[in-house]
Every structure is written in structure tokens, then in C-alpha cells.
Amino acid sequence: MKLVEPILATQAEIQSIRRDLHAHPELCYEEHRTAEIVAERLTAWGIPVVRGLGVTGVVGIVKNGTSERAIGLRADMDALPMQELNGFAHASTHAGKMHACGHDGHTAMLLGAAHYLSQHRNFDGTVYLIFQPAEEGGGGAKRMIDDGLFERFPMDAVYGMHNWPGIAEGSFGVVAGPMMASSNEFRVTVRGKGAHAAQPHRGIDPVMVAVQIAQAWQTIVSREKNPLETAVLSITQIHAGSATNIIPDEAELVGTVRTFSTGVLDLIQRRMQEMAEGIATGFGASVEFGFKRNYPPLVNHPEQTAFAIEAMRAVVGAARVDTDVEPTMGAEDFAFMLQAKPGCYVFIGNGEGEHRAGGHGLGPCQLHNASYDFNDNLLPIGASYWVRLVEMSLPAG
Question: Which of 90, 236, 280, 321 has its CA 20 to 30 A from that of 384?
């Protein structure tokens, strides 16, 4: 492993920042304190800062040389609305809020790289340091783009990184093409005709209609979609009724659809609506069909993925870089940035949990659980990756 030595020398400082952020988590579009800390640090290191993109987003600008080439490095800043159960000194001080996905670590890793780049400008071009709010369901990436991120800070490519369970500490994973799924949700209301449960012939039972719809939808994935394409259609909630002897007027189906391509998503959404409306009509009921597309699939661009692979190998060696990592049906709003610009998103392994005692929940590595904590051993590894990526993408001389 060939970490950047000056980054190792600042690890304690960056770790202190990370743990302070962990102790003071802020939800999407509420990252005022976090943004202030980021802006203060960048300014202290001589890096010009622009604030307010995407409400609380921060962009730092590091320039060197005369080249017009530019790349963006992105870290997310927001926490999750959940109660932390850890008992260590830097546990959340805000009830019901927790850094359970490692965005505190992502911010700290990019700050570590920013400090080095400000002091050792071994590149020719411009690096935009993108500290993004509201990844956890708030669409902060799209909000920054809508606020003019890529117009105000023109860049040739953009890169992101996320700590990931199941990958060894000191290792990376990436794949060209689809790597994370789209995130979409549906809410379908079946409207029938209420009646006494002892006299079902006098009503139109929306519960039975909803059951038929739920069963029919599964054939979209198993019989209508190309089996070589991956998709998930999960009904996670069914709501209906208020008493054992009443057939209700309405029943509601709620859930999520995940795909790796927009074409498959188009098919599933269209057929879900057609089936729901057709089945309801057949039973004399009606349907209100609601389908919301949240995050698109995250698709890595081949050329930028190749750059990222070489940078990762330069830091941890070829044996520790999985270039065909298994994609996940989880979603990530960095996908919006990859729709707008070429780029690559990588996973950095967060280890097996030795960095923290578990004792409850799923342990310190598994994301979105109450005993999670970012592995601080990753701080110099991730920061070194950012630096090598800059130096290889924007070579000096």
C-alpha cells in the first residue's frame, strides 16, 4: 500500500473532524454546521469557497498551472433520521439523528485530500471539491445541478466514493456500467364499494382486487422483463379496513421498484399501471396509480472508470482492487451527476468491524443500522485515492 505520506501525518486532525461531525449529525438540507466546518477548513487552507448550492452545498476550488482541464470530487454530508445506540465518546448528541452511512467519513476523506492538494499542487488544471447535502432521499445532487453546479464550475469529469460493507479494509471495488440501481416508489389506491362483511355481494371488495393486482405484478418481473435484465418489484405495505366485519371502500398498495436501466423501468411502470387498471375494471373497481421516480440508475463511464482503477491500484495495489464488483440494488443520487457528466463512483471497503465493538444491531460496518461507525483507518486511504486520481487525471508538466 502506497499512501500519501503527508496525508498520514494529518490523519489525527482529519479523524478529529470526522468524529466531531459524527457527534453532530444533520439531516438533509439542514447541514449548516457541517457546511460551516467544511468552509472554514477550506478557507484556512487557502482554498476559495462557494456556498449555498443545493441550499447547504459547498464547493472548494483548487487551481494550479495553466491547463483548462478540470475534474470534480464529491462527498456527501447528511445524516439519517435514526437513533444511535453506540456508547463511545463521539456518539450522536442529537436525538433521532445519526451518521449511520459514513457521510461524516466521506466528508473527512475529501477534506484530507483538499488539505494535501492545497499544499502540494502536483497537477495542472482545476479540482472542484463538491460537498453535497441531502443524499439520503433529498436529491441533493440534482439540487446542486439545478443550481448551476456544472455551469458555474465546468468540469470534464466527476467522481464519487462510498464506504462499503463486505469489502476488506484497504480494498476497493468498482465496475464499469451499472453499479447501483434506480430508486422508485409506488402508491396505488384501489377504490371499491364498502359493505357489511356478511353481505359481500352488496359491495365491491377492494382488498381482493388489491390481492389480484399484487399477484399479477410479480409476473412483470418473472414473465415480461428480459430475464438477463435485473429488477426488483417489492410490495412493502398493504393498508385496508378498520374492523373485522366491514369491507372497506379502499385498499392501498405501497412499495419500491429497482432497476439498472431506464428501459426496464419504463416497462415495469407501464405494465404495473395497465394491470392495476385492467384488473380493477374487471372487478368493477377503480384505481389511482401513483409512481414516483426518485434516483436514476448509477452508471459508471468506461474511460473514467479506467482512470479510477489505475488510481486505486496506485494506492493499494492491483490485488486489492476488484474491477468487477457485484452491483447493488441500493440507490445513490450521485447517479444524477453521472447523467450530466462522465465519471465514476467507487466502493472503499470498510472492513470486518474490528474498529468498533458491536454489541447490538448489525455491527459497525453495516450501513443504516444503529451500531454503525465509520472506520477511521480508511481516512488516509480514501484521501490518497483522491490525490492520485487528481494527479493522474490532471498530470503536471
Answer: 90
CA–CA distance, 104 with 113 (Å, rounded to integer): 15
Length of the chain: 397
Check whether 348 has a pLDDT greater than 60. yes
Q: What pLDDT was estimated at residue 354?
A: 77
Q: 362 vs 392, which has greater pLDDT?
A: 392
**Which of these, 356, 327, 291, lies nearest to 179 by C-alpha position?**
327
Parallel/antiparallel/unpaired status of strands 125-132 and 57-64? antiparallel
For the chain, count helices (H), then strands (E).
11, 16
Provide the CB-side half-sphere exposure for 330 (13 A, CA).
Answer: 15
With a cut of 60, say whether residue 178 has pLDDT above it: yes
DSSP state of 221: I
Report pLDDT for 360: 60
The three-class DSSP label of residue 182 is coil
Q: What is the pLDDT of residues 110-132, one digit of tens each?
A: 999 999 999 999 999 999 999 99
Element (H, E) at 63: strand 57-64
Query: By C-alpha distance, which of 160, 246, 146, 255 is closest to 200?
Result: 246
Is the distance from CB of 180 to CB of 288 less than 8 angstroms? Answer: no
Q: What is the tens place of the pLDDT at every residue in 287-313?
A: 999 999 999 999 999 999 999 999 999
C-alpha cell at 201: 355481494
Q: Which three cell numbers stand for residue 44?
A: 484556512
Strand locations in 133-285, DSSP E?
157-164, 172-173, 177-180, 183-191, 195-196, 231-240, 246-247, 250-259
Q: Which amino acid is located at 133 in the chain?
A: P
Given its phi and psi angles, is residue 350 left (phi above 0), alpha (psi -120 to 50 degrees) or beta?
alpha
User: 43 CB contacts (<8 Å, ≥6 apart)?
Assistant: 49
Residue type, 144: M
Backbone angles phi, psi at 231, to 5 degrees: -160, 155
